[in-house]
Amino acid sequence: MARMKFLCDSDRCIECNACVTACKNEHEVPWGINRRRVVTINDGLPGERSVSMACMHCTDAPCASVCPVDCFYTTDDAVVLHNKDTCIGCGYCSYACPFGAPQYPQTANFGTRGKMDKCTYCSGGPEPDMSQAEYVKYGANRLAEGKLPLCAEMCSTKALLAGDGDIIAEIYRERVVTRGYGSGAWGWRDAYGEAVTV
Amino acid sequence: MALVHGAGVMLMAKRLRCKGEKMSHLSKFAAILSLAFAVAVIAPQTQAQVNPTAESVSEDALFEALGTDGVVSGRVSIPDRSAGNLIKPENKAWASLHSNTIVTLSVIAVFGTVLALLAFYVLRGKIRVDAGLSGRTIRRFNVIERFAHWTLAFTFIVLALSGLNLIIGKSVILPLLGEGAFGTLSAWGKIAHNYLAWPFMVSLALILVLWVVHNIPNKLDVEWLKQGGGLLKKGVHPPAKKFNAGQKVIFWSVIVGGAALSYTGFMLLFPSIAGSFTDWQFYQLIHALVAAGLSAIVIAHIYIGSVGMEGAFDAMGSGEVDENWAKEHHSLWVEEVKGTSAGKGAATPAE
Fold it and tell me: What positions does the domain 4Fe-4S ferredoxin-type occupy (chain A) (predicted)?
């Protein structure tokens, strides 16, 4: 089995937000929930960089370690998923996540946040693959269809890469060597405990 | 600069090439020579200067440049500004603090106290009324005091258990109930925690108003503490008024700890008032630590008020305590009560 990862090549990202739109459309994500977002650093200044960020599906995910009801689980593809039936909406995972991935349908309403929602790496939840129940709670299960996450598939500049960690790291390495520069694989150190070295 | 210069030379060479047809071979050769010269001069310059498109801003460099403890944030096009926080590595520090330190401390506080009390019970046994029960009773707590106490007690127990469930539930209850039932239980626990917090705060305020006058520390408490409250030895009963030093410790622990829990809990209930992630993490840590400490104190309180001491439960049960119990544990208070009740019918005695 592959070890699925995301890698955003910030030297290619043009902040078109197609990944965000693709994600929202594919999973019919409710208004106010952003499973993926694009953050622009040094906006309008020399060295401006945009990075598309979602759940990084960490190794030893901090969200899973703090979850009081243990609703997180890791698939064979190393994708970090959660069970919305078990989730109590305590918010601890959002305190623990370095990437701001956990989202809640309600905010600041007497602490009732509702069930947590986050990027599923387009691989649904604990319900049977590609079932209606799974779709309603978690969105499409593209991995079960043999496809990769739509955000990366849709990326116009191929800045956002999804797939086996070793393979996408190799693609990124080749790019950096060819063009002679690279800003690094953002978030990899915090998510996987290793940076992509060129 | 070098780039502009280079472009200028290129442009010149192009123009020359256009005119080339009319040019002599010599001038053609001169043009090529000058172009070659220009390239030779510019080339090292081009290598030395930084191409703006190639200027790479690495994550590490930005972490350093921002100087914000490794937080990388920027602009987002969605309304939620906090989504601009791209990477916050320190969140992992909270995660490890919570799932290791806090869990360990809570378990030690709660189960350590239970074990210590068990040991105390085995060694000391139930503390009896030395003189035996007299059968005569004295009113110790009126109905308002008992109502405030039991509201506080009931809400605290539910709050403590539902809170403890968040700490150890997944390792203790989850294997017993399975994920579905445990999820439902915890969801109800969370609702109970959120709503029972309010009667807890009200009864805490009521308790403070009712009993604060009886809980001002004084010289008697020093003597009481010196004698270990008579807890350790049979037949030792240091004098005390309505509340002895041990009860005063519990009173102030409950007031201060309860206030801290109320404040931090309020902030966790209304995250938008509390601020941002760092504040939530801080409040959560304080909330968990104070809860663990106060739970330990309250467990000891429950012990001595029930199985630990003969006649103690009646004080909060019926509100009427046995006279001999009262004489042994609150000698000065008995004198006060007897004095006032005796004085009610008769004339005020001369001092």
Answer: 4-34, 47-77, 78-107
Domain total of chain B: 1
pLDDT in tens, B150-208: 999 999 999 999 999 999 999 999 999 998 899 999 999 999 999 999 999 999 999 99
Task: Give the model confidence (pLDDT) of B98-116 as tens digits.
Answer: 999 999 999 999 999 999 9
Task: Provide the CATH number for the domain around residue B272.
Answer: 1.20.950.20
Structural domain span for residue B302: 90-341
Confirm whether B55 is domain-assigned.
Answer: no
How many CB atoms neighbour CB A197 within 10 A?
9
Per-window interface: A 163-182 vs B, CB < 8 A: 179-182
Nearest-Cα distance to chain B for A85, in Å, is 7
* B57 within domain boundaries: no
- Number of C-beta neighbours around residue A179 at 10 A: 13
Q: Is the CB of residue A106 less than 8 Å away from at least one CB of chain B?
A: no
Q: Per-residue pLDDT tens for B4-54?
A: 343 433 444 444 444 444 445 555 555 555 555 544 444 444 333 434 444
Percent composition of chain B: helix, strand, coil (DSSP 3-state, to 5): 75, 5, 20
B85, β-bridge pairs: B73
* pTM, entire model: 0.82
- At what angle are helices B245-269 and B143-172 packed, to 10 degrees? 60
Q: Strands, DSSP E only, in chain B?
A: 72-73, 85-87, 137-139, 320-322
CA of A40, closest CA in chain B: separation in Å?
Answer: 5
Residue in chain A nearest B78 by alpha carbon: A37
Inform me whether the C-beta atom of residue A39 falls under 8 Å from chain B C-beta atoms.
yes
Domain assignments of chain A as residue spans, ordered by start: 4-192
- Quick check: is B288 in a domain? yes
| Residue B239 reports pLDDT greater than 90 | no
Contact state of B83 with A37 under an 8 Å Cβ cutoff: yes
B13 lies in a domain? no
Domain A4-192 class, CATH top level: alpha beta
